[in-house]
Amino acid sequence: MIFNKDGHGAEELRQATSSYYANADFDKISGIVETVQGEIGLQIGLPVMDSIDTAYQNGTDAELVSAAQRCVGYMSVLRYSRLNDISHETDGRKVKMDSDNERRPFEWQLERDDQMHLQEYYNAFDRLVLLLQNNETFKEGELYKRQQQLCITNAGVLEWVTGIEATPYLYMRMVPFLHMAQMKVEERLGSAIADITDEALKFLAQAATGNRGVALFVQRTEMRLLPSGAFREAVKSGAGSKRSTTEALHDYYQHMLQVSENYVKDMQCRRDAIAGEHTEHLVVPDNSKDNKYFIV
Questions:
Q1: Which of 44, 83, 122, 168 is 20 to 30 A off residue 99, Cα-Cα?
Q2: How far is CA 260 from CA 110, 121, 204, 255, 279, in A?
Q3: 19-28, 114-123, 257-266 — most confident range
Q4: How far apart are CA 103 and CA 165, in angstroms?
Q5: What one-character-per-residue DSSP string does 127-162 give?
Q6: Which residues pair with 288 in a beta bridge?
Q7: What residues form DSSP beta bridges with 89?
Q8: How far apart are CA 213 and CA 260, in angstroms?
Q9: In a 10 Å sphere around its CB, with 0-12 CB exposed, 13-18 middle and 19+ buried, how is residue 245 labelled?
Q10: CA-wise closest residue to 214 among 247, 252, 167
Q11: b/e for 41-62, b at 16 or more Cβ within 10 A?
Q12: How far apart are CA 173 and CA 167, in angstroms?
């Protein structure tokens, strides 16, 4: 565990998050910390987390250890706080009331505090992912190898070709979907995107891959992990109308698929132009002068 090496776990957690009392009993939260650390290890690679744990025990690589502590700390404190909003006692669950000195927070206040802790967790994860790009253990892992096989190699490229607010954490979660999207685009292209030398054609292939990857991500992942801009727009579209948020997200999924398909068509036109071939695409209806009808 990357906390409590010298018996000062509560102080370390307080320093990492500013949300846990330094004089609190660390044993009460240690189980949650271990669980969260394991879950993050599954995302970045267990050997990577083990190397961070070793660095913590040896007092090396302080920047990487600090980033991992913040990431683990914020999620641990969030879960601990949720568990303790209600007191669990031998005769059941209770809510403590002190009308003279303390007041129970409203539900919206709890939700806002949860959201702020969750956002800090994502921010900490972004920093952790960025630092890991130069970590040798991470580079030996499957996640990094999959990233290098993609035409969209980082969050910056993803944001450039799609326009979404792409963060390192979001990009990491999208790697499997980008891989599926790239396979489909390369099938339509007829060759590997890595073999493209024309910059315009490469951009079109990247854009088709990125937008299709976002569509697959929206369709198959948890709503809380969706790109914030897209998610907010979907909620806005669903709120105050008969259309549910799920329907709005489905519309967004269809929209991103169409955007990807448009890039695919442009990509094929560019490919054929480079090869000296002419591809005829029907833009307007083909009017028949004899029969006075047109084909759509």
A1: 83
A2: 39, 31, 9, 9, 19
A3: 257-266
A4: 38
A5: HHHHHHTT-HHHHTSHHHHHHHTSS--SHHHHHHHH
A6: 293
A7: 92
A8: 9
A9: middle
A10: 252
A11: bebbbeebbebbbebbeeeebe
A12: 10
Helices 107-132 and 168-189 meet at what angle, rounded to 10?
60
Cα–Cα distance, 261 to 80 (Å, whole number): 45
How does pLDDT run across 180-214, given as a tens digit for each residue? 999 999 999 999 999 999 999 999 999 999 999 99
Rounded to a whole number of angstroms, the distance between the first and last alpha carbons of the chain is 64
Asked if 180 contacts 260 with a C-beta cutoff of 8 angstroms, the reply is no
CB-based contacts of 219-225 (< 8 A; 24+ apart in sequence): 219/253, 220/177, 221/173, 223/249, 224/118, 225/170, 225/173
Identity of residue 164: I
Amino acid at 212: R
Q: Residue 36 and residue 56: Cα distance in Å, rounded?
A: 17
Residue 119 identity: Q
Spatial distance between the Cα atoms of 284 and 296, rounded to a whole number of angstroms = 8
Distance CA 123, CA 117 (A): 10
CA distance 5 to 9: 7
Q: What DSSP state is assigned to residue 60?
A: -
Cα-based distances in Å from 121 to 40, 189, 276: 11, 39, 52
- Contact between residue 181 and residue 212 where contact means Cβ atoms under 8 Å apart: yes
pLDDT at 174: 92
Instruction: Count other C-beta atoms under 10 Å from residue 264's C-beta.
Output: 21
How far apart CA 253 and CA 258 sit, in angstroms, is 9
Residue 192 near residue 160, CB atoms below 8 Å: no
pTM of the model: 0.81
Sorted by sequence, the CB contacts under 8 Å of residue 162 that are 6+ apart come out as: 207, 210, 211, 214
User: For the segment 11-54, what is each residue's pLDDT rounded down to a tens digit?
Assistant: 999 999 988 887 788 998 999 999 999 999 999 999 999 999 99
